[in-house]
Amino acid sequence: MYNFDNVQIDRYVRVSTAAFKEIVDLVGGVEVLVPKDMQYEDKTQGLVIDLKAGLQTLNGDEAEQFARYRQDAYGDIGRVQRQQILLKALRQRMTSPTVLPKLPQIIRVLQSRIDTNLSLEELLALAGFGLNLESKEDLQMVMLPGRFSSPEEYQASYWIADQSASRDLMQTYFGVQPNALVADAGRDSVNYYEPPSERSLRGLRIAIQNATDDQYASYSMAEDLRNKGFNNVYISPDWSGVEPTTSVVAQRGDLGSAQAVKAAIELGEVIFESTGDIESDLTIRVGEDWLMQVDPTWERLPYDGPR
Length: 307
What we know:
Radius of gyration: 21 Å
Strand content: 15-25%
Number of strands: 13
Shape: globular
Number of helices: 11
CATH architecture of the largest domain: 3-Layer(aba) Sandwich
Distance between the termini: 41 Å
C-alpha cells in the first residue's frame, strides 16, 4: 500500500493469462493496431511471439503475445501500455450485441480462472456497470508516475514511483486527503480536479506525437503551443497509425492540466491512460482534425497502415 499512499485495498482481482486468452477467444477476438513487427522466442518459458504490424483482430493467443512483448526501449513499462490498449479493446468488444449473450459464459470463465475475493453478485454488478459506461472519460487507466532507476541505484532496472505525483493521483482518483475546496463545494473528491495555474501550465512537459500522414503536423502543433505560452514542448516519435481525432493523453493522471491543454488547442479529446511518452506530463497525439484546423482545404489521403 506504500505506493498507493496507504489507500486501503479491500477488493482484488488477479487474472491469469489463461483466463485472458479464453475470454478474448469467447468474444471473437479484439481489434488492435500492432505498431511494428513483433518477434521473440524464449524457450525456457515456451514463449513464441510472432506478430505482424497493422490493424488486426487478435485471437486469445495473439493478444497474449502482444501483452507479453517487452523487447523495446520501455521494457516492462511498454508492456503495461500495451496491456492498457488491450483492456480498452476488450471492453469495446464486450459491448457488441453479438457478445452480450455470452456474458454468463464469460463470468463462469472468470470464476474458474481468476483469484478474487469478490462474490458472484459483485462480479455481475461490476460487469453490468462496465458495460453501461457511455463515454471515453468513464474508463480511466493510469500508471503510477515515475522514472526508470539508474545503474548507480540498482543493478536491475526498476520503475521508481514519483511519490509527490502519485499522491496527487491518489487524491484525484480515490479521495485521499481531499482538498478543502472540495469539501466546501459539497462535491465528491474522487475524480475532482482543480484548474491548474498559468505558471504550472507553462512548465508542463508536453510531448507531441504525430498521428497523421503529414510529416510536419507535430511541428505545427508544437509551434502553436509555444506561441500560446507552453515553454516545455518537444517532439516525440510518431504514433504508429493515423488517428482522426487529436488526443490529449493524461500520461500521469493529471486531469486538470489535460483539460486546460485541450481548451488551449481548441479541439480533440482527453484520454485517460498512460500510453503516451513516459517522459512527459502530457502527450498530445496529433490527429487529422488538427490538419483541418490549420488548413481548411486539407483533404484526407487513404490510410495505408502503420508507418
